[in-house]
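ok trying this again, last paste got cut off
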Amino acid sequence: MSASPVFSSAAMSRPFIFPARSSAALLTKLEALPRFANAITPASRLHVRPAPEMVSCGIRELDALTGGFPRGCLTEIYGPASSGRTSVLFAALACATRRGEVCALVDASDAMNPASAAAAGVAMERLLWVRCRKTVPSFQFPVAGSLRDRKSKTSNSGFNNHRREWESSLEQVLKVTDLLLQSNGFGMIVLDLSDVPAHSARRIPLASWFRYRRAVEHTPTVFLIMEQQPIAGSCSSILMKVTGRRSQITGKKHAAFCTPHIAGRLSHTELLDEFEINAELLRSRLERKQPKSVMNFTTRAAWSG
């Protein structure tokens, strides 16, 4: 086998010729090297990100469980109907307004009772209540406009028009929430999706939650999300589940009133007096280690009127 011409003695005896380079260009590159070295921070000089400021949520047991609600972070509180979500919401708003902070509530289904909120201690003059004027049954509730439902073959054109109308409505809710977070002028912002069906809430784009997390970072705003099931994924710093365990009904009869189901007839009703809530901390991305993940507390109903 003959030797390769590349490594032959004749080829190796020839001098290697390198392309001519400008000395000024080489000096420029050499001078730029220290800049790249200085731009890289050694691991020994990295600073630990400071823990966010924690504020009281208005319920002593929840403060012991989570340390409070963090500023500049997303906090998810979810649970089924009659699980105590509204009690936690009113307690948090009441505590924030007592601190003199201006709060905002984006009510996706226009379900809040302002009289009950005021009876729970919420200073309504410090609360911006963003209402969705229309309410629809759960099976007709909208989804985000960027994720349209596939057209159902069995649905008529009127139902499709109604569905598209509510899709646009929920899209506006998300835009309003974004504007409120960008303003940096609220001590607490609550996005209440409690009455939104879970299948509709899950279709909110994940990019929206990442945008919200970036918008609330490094701000003094507490961002709460009330929902039926967790939907923000890794964007939330605290994920808490609440469930109603047991209720106590007062033994005495309350005042008579006319019921809409029995027209013209008076009926006596027993009102719910106490409600025991079980709160479970499912995830906390904060540095503080939690000694307990489950806490029970009891709330008393604040009836107005």
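PB: full thing came through this time. The two ends are 106 Å apart (CA to CA).
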